Each structure stands twice: as C-alpha cells, then as structure tokens.
C-alpha cells in the first residue's frame, strides 16, 4: 500500500471516528488573548513570478520560526514561536499554493500550514522591512519537477528574545522491579544491564554542553509503559531513547537492532489520544486541544505525528550508524514496530536492542563494564549526530548548528 493511500485512510478514519466531514474554519484568537510579548502576525500577502510563489507574512517584530515540508499531501509547515495571528490569514490559490491554514500551537506558538498542489522546495528569510517594529517573514516556494524532495528543516532566527535552553533527552532503561526482562543462560538480567548502560549514557549526556538527560527509572523498580511516556512528556523531553537487550529461543541470533514506531502504531495512537481527549488528555503532540473542534485537532495531531515519525527515523539511522562501530548490527535497516514506548506523538523516539542476551557470547559482552561503556558512548554519538541537524529551535545546540552552517 502506498504511503499516500495509508495517510488518506488514516485521515478518513480519524474523521469518521470523530463523526465529522468537510473542512472547519481555524480558530482566530482575539487580540486580548495573547501575552504582550507575543509577536503579532498581522497579515499575509502573495507575489507570483516565473513559477515561484512568494508568501510574505507581516510581523510586529522578529520571530523564531522553523519551517519544514511534508508530503502526502504536500504541505509546508511554519511554526512561529511565541506568536499569534491577529486576524484570519487568507490567500488566493496560485499554480503552486492550494490554501493556507493556521492555528495556535501549545501555550504561545502559532502553526501555519501552506497546502500545496504539488511538491515544492521551500525556504524562508526573516527581514526587517523598515519601521521600528515592522518585520517580514518571506517564504519562497518553487516547484520540484523531479524526484521526491528530502524534508528540509531550517531554523532562521533573528535577535533571540528568549534565553537558549538545553535539549532534553529522556533515557528509558527497559523493564525493572518485578519485570526482569529477558534472562541469559548465565543468569544475567536484561533489567540490570540496560540500567547500567542507561546510567552511563545519562552521565555522558549531562557532561555535554547544551544537553541534559534524565531517566524513566534510575534504579530497580517497575514502571508501566504509559508511565514512561508520561515522564517523558512531563519533563518536555526533546528525544526519547529506550534501551533493551534482545532474546531469542535460539542461541545463534546476535547483534544490535534499532526500532522506530511503525506508521500503523502511530495512527492507532492518534486515534486513542483523540478518543481520550474528553477525559484527561487535552494536550496531544504539544497542541492544546481544549479549544479546538475535532477536525482541527485531528489535523494538528496528524501533522505533528508525521513530522515526529520522520524525525524518529533520522534519529534511528544516526543511532544505527554509531552503534555499528561497537557491535555488528543484527538488522542493517532501522526496523519499524508498534512498541508502546515509541508512541509519543510529539517526541522523536527510538528503541535499541543493544545485543542478544540469549546468545552466550553476547551475554558475556553485556556483563562487561567495557562493553556497556562502549554502548553508552555509541548511543551518545548517535544522539549528538541527530541534534547536529535537528536540534529544536530555541536550544543552544540549534543556535550553534546555525552559526556553524552560516559561518563555518
Ligand atoms: Zn526488553
């Protein structure tokens, strides 16, 4: 089944589940609803020339933003930090542009989606347009004639008006307490070796400038899978890394495997979260859903999840590349599965089966501090590789990456 069909099915499913049809208007916030420091997006204009579409946002001040493209359907997503639309944003269609949508995101941010008629490259520039408080964000769209474009994530910033923060990594040592996980022939417990690797990784991360780590459990006790997700969300983790050891009924399988969430796992989780929102879940994917109708909510969650799935895959790929230097991979691709701990809709997540505890040689390795230290080092390497290009806007690492790319 092609991706686009699956995506369409998923949206249809969400819409049916929510008993909705047709498009709903996006919410427009009244001017009194936002903080005095928020940047106002006062309007949006178009200019068209030579197959290019230029979208110009008029702003009351400089704004942190990030821009990325998604496909199936093709769209450009622009997240403005600490910003509000002071009026509904409308644009007429162009050969490239189908429509514009926007909605508040989280407590203080604004998400704008440009729906496209076809694949397009997108870039953004923030310019000071004269007048003390007048800025423009210019987004250029140009059609792509061949191939599928790589999703681009660019972050442009001008005059940071917020202190930069550390990226936060949630480390999840598998199992614990009454749940030992897999047990090796020599009596090695999975819960014990993965906790040790996790502790080492936590120390390494906390030593890195611009990075912070915490664990879902820091000793031998039981935590439910949902409890692990809740801890990651509560601490606003930017990344979630679950550490396990593999087991097989046979003694021969060996090596390391990296998993990310399968598309089916993601869509069923979106459905579950949306179904539960009447009860206690009013924030899904960093989106405050309490003041949104169901279709808007499902579109926002869907958008956030596609972006998270793509980011998780990049994380998985970097981890695999780094782990490969320590232990042979069991699987040479990043595997996809519906593990519950990978289901945060807004936190890029990966699960690492470090080695087979059921393989006698690998059980021996898992028992040595040396191997655990190398594995922790490899995980740190993969995480740093990932953040080099995908650190969230507003973090020390994102700013450092931007400076290096511009001036390096
Ligand atoms: Zn496990």
UniProtKB/TrEMBL annotation:
- Principal subcellular localization: periplasm
State the Gene Ontology BP annotations: cell wall organization; peptidoglycan catabolic process
Q: Which PROSITE patterns match?
A: TAT (PS51318)
* UniProt-listed Gene3D superfamilies: 2.60.40.3500, Zn-dependent exopeptidases
Subcellular locations according to the entry: Periplasm
SMART domains reported for this sequence: Ami_3
Write out the transmembrane intervals: none
Q: Name one GO cellular component term.
A: outer membrane-bounded periplasmic space
Its UniProt entry gives the catalysed reaction(s) as:
Hydrolyzes the link between N-acetylmuramoyl residues and L-amino acid residues in certain cell-wall glycopeptides
Q: Which UniProt keywords apply?
A: Cell wall biogenesis/degradation, Hydrolase, Periplasm, Signal
Q: Where does the record locate the signal sequence feature?
A: 1-35
User: What SUPFAM superfamilies does the entry give?
Assistant: Zn-dependent exopeptidases
Q: Which domain of life is it from?
A: Bacteria
Show where the MurNAc-LAA domain sits.
Answer: 229-384
* Cited Pfam families: Amidase_3 (PF01520), AMIN (PF11741)
Instruction: List the EC numbers from the record.
Output: 3.5.1.28
Q: Does the keyword Nucleotide-binding apply?
A: no
GO molecular function terms noted in the UniProt entry: N-acetylmuramoyl-L-alanine amidase activity
- PANTHER family for this protein: N-ACETYLMURAMOYL-L-ALANINE AMIDASE, N-ACETYLMURAMOYL-L-ALANINE AMIDASE AMIC
Q: Which family does it belong to?
A: Belongs to the N-acetylmuramoyl-L-alanine amidase 3 family.
What protein name applies here?
N-acetylmuramoyl-L-alanine amidase AmiC
User: From which source organism is this entry?
Assistant: Acidihalobacter prosperus
């Amino acid at each position: 089944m092609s991706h686009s069909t699956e995506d369409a099915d998923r949206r249809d499913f969400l819409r049916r589940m929510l008993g909705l049809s047709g498009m709903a208007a996006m919410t427009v916030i009244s001017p009194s609803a936002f903080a005095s420091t928020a940047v106002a997006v006062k309007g949006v204009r178009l200019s068209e020339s030579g197959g290019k579409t230029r979208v110009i946002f008029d702003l009351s001040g400089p704004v942190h933003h990030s821009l990325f493209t998604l496909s199936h359907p093709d769209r450009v997503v622009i997240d403005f930090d600490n910003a509000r639309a002071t009026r509904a944003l409308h644009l007429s269609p162009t050969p490239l542009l189908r429509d514009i949508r926007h909605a508040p995101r989280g407590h203080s941010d604004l998400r704008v989606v440009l729906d496209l008629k076809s694949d397009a490259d997108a870039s953004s520039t923030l310019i000071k347009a004269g007048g003390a408080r007048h800025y423009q964000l210019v987004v250029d769209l140009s059609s792509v004639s061949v191939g599928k474009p790589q999703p681009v994530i660019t972050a442009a910033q001008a005059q940071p008006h917020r202190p930069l923060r550390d990226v936060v990594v949630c480390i999840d040592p598998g199992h614990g307490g009454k749940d030992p996980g897999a047990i090796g022939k020599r009596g090695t417990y999975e819960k014990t070796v993965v906790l040790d690797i996790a502790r080492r990784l936590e120390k390494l991360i906390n030593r890195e400038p611009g990075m912070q780590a915490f664990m879902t459990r820091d000793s031998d006790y039981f935590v439910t899978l949902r409890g692990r997700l809740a801890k990651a969300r509560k601490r606003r983790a930017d990344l979630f890394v679950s550490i396990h050891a593999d087991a097989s009924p046979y003694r021969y399988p060996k090596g390391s495997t990296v998993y990310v969430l399968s598309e089916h796992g993601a869509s069923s989780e979106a459905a579950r979260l949306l179904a539960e929102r009447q009860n206690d879940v009013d924030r899904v994917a960093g989106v405050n859903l309490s003041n949104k109708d169901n279709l808007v909510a499902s579109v926002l969650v869907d958008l956030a999840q596609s972006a998270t799935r793509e980011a998780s895959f990049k994380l998985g790929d970097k981890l695999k590349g780094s782990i490969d230097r320590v232990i042979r991979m069991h699987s040479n691709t990043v595997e996809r599965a519906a593990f519950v701990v990978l289901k945060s809709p807004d936190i890029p997540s990966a699960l690492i089966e470090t080695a087979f505890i059921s393989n006698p040689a690998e059980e021996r390795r898992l028992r040595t501090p040396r191997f655990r230290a190398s594995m922790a080092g490899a995980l740190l390497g993969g995480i740093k590789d990932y953040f080099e290009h995908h650190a969230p806007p507003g973090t020390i690492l994102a700013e450092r990456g931007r400076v290096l790319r511009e001036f390096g």
